Amino acid sequence: MHEAFLAEIRAILGDETPAFLAEMDRPYAHTLRLNPFRENAEEAASPFTEGAVEWCADGRYYRNDTRPGLSPLHFAGAYYIQEASAMAPAMALDAQPGDRVLDLCAAPGGKSGQLAAALRGEGLLISNEPEPSRAKILSATMERLGVSNSIVVNSLPEKLSPVLPEFFDKILVDAPCSGEGMFRRDPATRSEWTPASPAGCASRQAFILDHAAKMLRPGGRMAYSTCTFNRAENEETIAAFLGRHPDFRPVSFSLPGIGESENGCLRLWPHRLRGEGHFLALMEKTGEPERDSARPKSARPDKEVQAAVKMLLDIAPGLKTLLDRGEVVRAGEILKLVPSCAPELKGVKVVRHGLHLCRIGKNYVEPDHALCMALHPSDVSLVREVTDEEALPLLTGETLPSDARGWLMFTYKNMPLGWGKASGGVAKNHIPKGLRIQR
């Protein structure tokens, strides 16, 4: 490791430096986060797991000799492979059902999935990723996890802040950083680091935070996090931000297994806990929020949309619970369910606007894969449970036998995999080709 990096570590840790360096040469812990939208996820994942992450109720360590990412359970959204320390920022932000939440730097989607789980389908989550290719990955993650109340956008912070002034109750800024906390998991990052990296990243982080501040309502909270160790990108960035924004104050908090914050800041060190390096800070914007003006109601859906919704309810009667939380919007042949509190997003590139319900035509409805993943099997009229032997063939695109007739949900261990349409003793596979496993 570079001498400049080691000098910074010695300055921060002092006598703990040898313990830190020794830990950096040991194997890292493997972790996943169970998806609470899949009610039997813990039992299904138990063959992989071997203990809980103290600071995250859904976090689990898994054995290094297992590959849960290759299991059909992963495809079904039973869990998300997420590093243990990376689970801490969302826990500190403490999103509540009904909140309006922004994940400003969201790809690949682990923290967004965690925030969505905290919202429990109520309120709104806007997940943003400035890089287009990563925004697509983010959208796919939200779909796989069955999130129904999210909007995925592809925007720069400076483009987003004028559109959504003081709109959010909670904001997470998991900022791009020099990545020193990844030196153990990904040794190649060590060679990419230079002594100039922290200062360059800190400048970028300040810019992002300033725009995030504009989007937080008075009384709202913002969590800032990095996966790096140096002070320039962490405590110094927060101190500078608070100096520029006297309407913000640090918020004290604690997390089980990690400890108490200091001036609203908390560090996670790999030699002190079973996880990688991370930093997080929690801040609150002072003042009282203004009451929102009433959002104008949309026109009554046309007869074709009403007919399509009725056909969807025949396929999935339990969809009604979701429909009550949002508004059905038509975009060409696509019907979407948009959260009731969703804002106008003029000038912002939207990758996924709410939950895609179906594609419609005259007397024709094709339910969307995203809808399947957002439903529980008990919500659907017809279900085809898939065996261990059938799972891989299904996920590669093969058909399966079925005595049913009509649209059905393929499930694995009572979790959704995708739609099928059955007739003549066969269920045709409607899992999107882009999601299928390539043999």
Quick description:
By secondary structure, the chain is α+β, with helices and mostly antiparallel strands. The protein has helices at residues 3-13, 17-24, 41-45, 72-75, 88-93, 110-119, 132-144, 157-160, 188-192, 197-215, 235-244, 303-315, 319-323, 369-374, 388-395, and strands at residues 31-34, 49-52, 59-62, 79-81, 100-103, 124-128, 150-154, 168-174, 216-226, 248-250, 254-255, 259-260, 265-268, 278-285, 326-331, 334-339, 349-353, 355-361, 364-367, 383-385, 400-401, 406-412, 415-423, 426-429. The two termini are 40 Å apart.
Q: Layout of SSEs?
A:
Blueprint: H1 3-13, H2 17-24, E1 31-34, H3 41-45, E2 49-52, E3 59-62, H4 72-75, E4 79-81, H5 88-93, E5 100-103, H6 110-119, E6 124-128, H7 132-144, E7 150-154, H8 157-160, E8 168-174, H9 188-192, H10 197-215, E9 216-226, H11 235-244, E10 248-250, E11 254-255, E12 259-260, E13 265-268, E14 278-285, H12 303-315, H13 319-323, E15 326-331, E16 334-339, E17 349-353, E18 355-361, E19 364-367, H14 369-374, E20 383-385, H15 388-395, E21 400-401, E22 406-412, E23 415-423, E24 426-429
Parallel strand pairs: 5-6, 5-8, 6-7, 8-9, 20-22
Antiparallel strand pairs: 1-3, 1-4, 2-3, 7-17, 9-14, 10-14, 11-12, 13-14, 15-16, 16-18, 18-19, 21-24, 22-23, 23-24
